[in-house]
Amino acid sequence: MTMNILILVVKSARILRMRLIKMISAEYENVAIEIEQQVIKVIKGMRQEGLTDKESGGMLIGSILTNSNDIVIKDYTFPQKGDYQSRYRFIRREKSHNALLQQKWEESNKTVMYMGEWHTHPEIDPHYSRQDLRNWKKLLSKSKTFSDYLVFIIGGINIFKVWVGSRENGDIVLVYKGAYNESNKFN
Ligand SMILES: [Zn+2]
Fold this sequence. Notes:
Layout (H helix, E strand, L loop, with lengths): L1 H20 L1 E6 L2 E6 H9 L11 E8 L6 E6 L7 E3 L2 E3 L2 H14 L5 E8 L9 H13 L6 E7 L3 E8 L5 E8 L8
Parallel strand pairs: 2-4, 7-8
Antiparallel strand pairs: 1-2, 3-4, 3-7, 5-6, 8-9, 9-10
The structure holds zinc ion.
Zinc ion (ZN) binds next to loops.
GO molecular function: metal ion binding; metallopeptidase activity
Pfam family, one: Prok-JAB
Protein name: JAB domain-containing protein
């Protein structure tokens, strides 16, 4: 009897924690990737619903959990002055985004780091372009970060997708496809 109650308590604590933190979870090889809901919410806010809306983008920032390879994406940068934004193109300038990353790194007591990139597309269900793939491959080989993996998000109009890239072998794999309005999770 007591045991049953205990199990019930543990179970509800876990459910409560999941509800409080609000993440989306994906897996790549033996790595768990968690993305805090607020990150998706920001991308949703910048999606290209209007016919003249331009692409937006920025860095994904997060941590590697101790004693694992697991990744949590909890922060981001968004378009800065000097970034190139057009209907089908977003190019971020290095300097301003790197300065923000540096600032977030210091504020977090050096626990967060560069974890990848996000940008929007004027498509209902987004696909990466050849240019995106070239950029992502370049970032996998050139980025300075402790993470062995980088996360790439494209926010379409209704759907967002998450890819994970391995810095070891350059593979890029789709790990998550979601709708912003799924049970109003991202409102
Ligand atoms: Zn793109």
